[in-house]
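pasting for the record
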Amino acid sequence: QVQLVESGGGLVQAGDSLRLSCAASGLTFGSYNKAWFRQAPGKEREFVAAITWRSSTTYYADSVKGRFTISGDNTKNTVYLQMNSLKPEDTGVYYCALGTSYAVTHGRDFGSWGQGTQVTVSS
């Protein structure tokens, strides 16, 4: 069965960095698009970043461009999200997702999800 396990979240101050990891099992990791989404309290889940399996093309939400970097390591079945210059508005639960759809920026494009990891950025 497919399992995605996120880690690396925590409480940091504005301007700090964090690296989230998502370890996958139960599927052929290299053949899936990978993405990170987040959900802040009282808000809908939103797209953060994605990387395609075929060409490793990356996509980012405007709010994180230049600060966040998504990457994948097929040898470790792990996708990462490096988050720099964190802001209080980056606070939320971060979810990794894997999918095979052509599109990669909506939740409906992904069929496998992790349980989430909390990121809290204090001002």
